[in-house]
Specification:
Blueprint (H helix, E strand, L loop, with lengths): L9 E4 L9 H11 L19 H4 L15 H6 L7 E5 L4 E2 L4 H11 L4 E5 L8 H4 L7 E5 L5 H5 L25 H12 L5 E4 L1 H4 L5 E3 L4 E3 L2 H4 L4 E3 L4 H12 L13 E5 L9 E2 L3 H6 L1 H15 L7 E5 L2 E5 L8 H7 L7 E2 L9 H6 L2 E3 L1 E2 L10 H5 L4 E2 L2 H12 L7 E2 L1 E3 L9 E2 L2 H6 L14 E2 L3 H12 L5 E2 L7 H5 L5 H17 L4 E7 L3 H7 L4 H17 L5 E8 L6 H13 L7 E3 L7 H8 L15 H8 L7 H13 L3 H8 L4 H9 L1
Length: 674
């Protein structure tokens, strides 16, 4: 999701494999998995107080100054006569490391800066929310929030949502479409000489020419539309810290062009020998194949340890994307969790519920990054494919803090990350990883250089469960069963995977275990960069066996996507038949939503696979998408007649028999005679 980062969404944006009706509520949890942040390498001696963690977990002891200020009154209460940085966010202010504005705010505070946050400012009327704190000494920071605003506002069928998980009491309409553009334009109108730094998932994923599903057109990099002076993409702590260090040494803002993980516009830029020169925005508008070719470069550079600078012309200007920072170290991540979060919403929201916070307040994120490389997911585009894990000591410290929260009942809702079981995984030979540019370590096959040892996770679970006050620690993140079922050359890895499966199912499922096969058909799964459905069937047998062995009555909840590039109505019909045979009546499903900067979105828009340049079929119209989605719900009477009609057109009466044999035979006979 972070303020200048990256949630997924996330997600998230990452794929939201959720029922369309409850995406805003459940998506917040998916995004929270990958919006945990990495920390600074050092903390300024002027950082101020760092309260004891136990103190932070008792709301009764809090004073208003425990939160970063959000109003002029709160600023004055601290005795401040100026601010260094003012952050504007499309989300409510929750002072928790899963929420971006808090992460960046606390990171800057730890550097000795005076920071304020303006959450969900009113962009209509007289702009009083943008004026109330005046101009900061260094810069404004702007983020749309932990979700792309368009995903936050609209369903896959472009219907306006009626709620917002990141707003008190789910209230809709508290942020505009594209806050990254709207907020920045307002600030530049009011304070033209004050630099604006743009971040967050919306800006990060739109840093270069991208397809916008909601406008149904190719858009230029967001700095063309937003007058921000600098864009920070990905996880934002290290870039924002380096920016502040440069400014504090006296370097003028507009002379800072070489900070990793930043993007800026230039009318005159001298290409370097190893720069990657993309096709221009104008060329991509004329030729979709060029847009597809561009994407391959963008994705590969996002997943390399030693990336190259990317340049793209747009009109008379050039978008310059500096390479990202290296993956964060354990020490850097651990340091971030010493920052003085209250872990609670700002007191201004007293008596109101913020769903996104409620879903993660008793969960612990143990790592960032994901090497799955799923075609529809943006996690690696934000966090990278290399796993950066917290130390066991840091995690246990946070768990202990949660046990001291007044309303904690003893149950951790999640001990996970972007994926449940990638903690501490890395390459056996770092030199091979340093040269690799593949977006996935497990697709189409598991890399032989991957050290997929589940032992650290098993040890972590054991230590967490020993903590007084912990009754159960559940795993709410999605489990990569392909990592568990793969046969490794090193038998020790096989043994650890086997032990993990048994431990997970027997002791860490809250009643429902989430996994994401996404589809059943091999050709579709190939386009998704997902493993064969046979592995899911194998995992289900293990799940059922362990449940029976321990006398448990737990459910396996598979997630599926319809209308993904490469998927046809016949593929969906086959999915319906196969999942029926496994006795599933699907719940966690979603129609594919094209989000900026994913492989699947590029296939959707261009019609080509960016790596093979082969043409790929995609359902594009509302009717085509609904025709696929209906097969998820074959068991509902209201869909039966239309499904049978579609299967008759395909001349697949055999599938009609498999789906509806024994179900309303009279209805079936009547329909077949028509």
């Amino acid at each position: 999701m972070y303020f200048f980062f990256h949630t997924k969404v996330d997600h998230s944006l990452f794929s939201c494999k959720l029922a369309e009706s409850n995406v805003p509520q459940l998506l917040s949890k998916a995004i929270s998995k990958f919006t945990w942040y990495n920390a600074m390498t050092s903390i300024s001696p002027n950082a101020g107080r760092v309260p004891d963690f136990a103190y932070l977990c008792n709301m009764k002891t809090y004073k208003p100054e425990a939160w970063l200020p959000t109003t002029k009154k709160e600023v004055e209460a601290r005795g401040w006569d100026y601010l260094d940085v003012i952050l504007f966010s499309g989300d409510a202010y929750v002072d928790h490391p899963s929420f971006g504005a808090a992460v960046i705010g606390r990171t800057l505070e730890a550097m000795g800066l005076r920071v304020a946050i303006v959450p969900q400012p009113d962009w209509r009327g007289d702009f009083r929310d943008f004026k109330k704190l005046g101009a900061p000494r260094l810069f404004f920071g702007v983020s749309a929030g932990a979700m792309d605003s368009m995903i936050n506002h609209y369903t896959a069928n472009k219907r306006l949502r009626s709620d917002d998980a990141y707003t008190p009491d789910r209230r809709a309409g508290m942020r505009p479409d594209y806050p990254s553009i709207v907020y920045t334009k307002i600030l530049k109108e009011l304070y033209p000489d004050v630099p604006v730094v743009l971040g967050g998932i919306e800006a990060s994923m739109r840093r270069l020419t991208h397809y916008d599903y909601w406008q149904d057109q190719l858009r230029p990099g967001i700095l063309i539309d937003s007058p921000a002076d600098l864009l920070i993409y990905g996880m934002g702590e290290k870039p924002i810290q380096e920016l502040v260090r440069r400014l504090q040494t006296g370097t003028p803002f507009h002379e800072i062009h070489d900070i990793p993980q930043t993007v800026y516009l230039s009318a005159k830029v001298q290409p370097k020998a190893d720069d990657i020169l993309l096709f221009s925005h104008e060329e991509c508008l004329k030729d979709k194949l060029k847009q597809a070719k561009n994407f391959r470069h963008i994705e590969e550079e996002s997943n390399k340890q030693h990336a190259q600078r990317i340049l793209q012309r747009c009109g008379q200007q050039t978008i310059v994307v500096n390479p990202p920072f290296p993956p964060m170290t354990e020490a850097e991540i651990d340091a971030s969790f010493d920052l003085p979060y209250t872990r609670l919403p700002h007191p201004k929201y007293k008596g109101k519920v913020i769903p996104a916070f409620e879903m993660i307040k008793f969960s612990v994120n143990i790592h960032r990054g994901c090497f799955g490389g799923c075609a529809f997911c943006t996690i690696s585009a934000h966090q990278g494919k290399f796993i950066a894990s917290r130390s066991k000591e840091s995690i246990l410290k946070e768990v202990k803090a949660i046990t001291e929260m007044p309303d904690f009942k003893g149950y951790l809702s999640d001990l996970g990350g972007p994926s449940a079981n990638m903690y501490r995984m890395k390459g056996l030979n770092p030199e091979i990883c340093a040269k690799c540019k593949k977006p996935s370590c497990i697709s189409p096959v598991v890399c032989k250089n991957l050290n997929a040892d589940h032992t650290p996770l098993l040890e972590l679970y054991k230590e967490v469960d020993k903590i007084p006050g912990i009754k159960k620690s559940f795993i709410g993140s999605g489990v990569r069963y392909d990592l568990l079922l793969h046969r490794y050359d090193n038998d020790a890895l096989n043994q650890s995977a086997h032990k993990y499966v048994e431990e997970l199912i027997a002791r860490h499922v809250s009643g429902r275990l989430k996994v994401a096969p996404e589809h059943t058909q091999d050709e579709v799964l190939k386009q998704m960069r997902k493993p064969s459905f046979k592995l899911f069937e194998q995992f289900k047998k293990i799940f059922d066996r362990v449940n029976k062995q321990h006398g448990l009555n737990q459910q396996l909840i598979p997630y599926f996507i319809s209308s993904h590039p490469g998927c046809t109505e016949l593929d969906m019909a086959e999915l319906a038949v196969i999942t029926k045979g496994l006795h599933f009546q699907l719940e966690q499903v979603q129609d594919f939503t094209p989000t900026p900067m994913t492989l699947a979105t590029e296939m959707y828009y261009t019609g080509y696979h960016p790596y093979t340049l082969e043409k790929v079929y995609t359902a594009r119209t509302k009717e085509q998408k609904l025709a696929q989605r209906q097969f998820f719900f074959w068991y509902k009477p209201e869909y039966r007649q239309q499904i049978m009609k579609e299967l008759q057109k395909m001349k697949r009466r055999d599938l009609i028999d498999k789906l509806f044999k024994g179900i309303n035979k009279r209805h079936l006979k009547t329909n077949q005679q028509q």
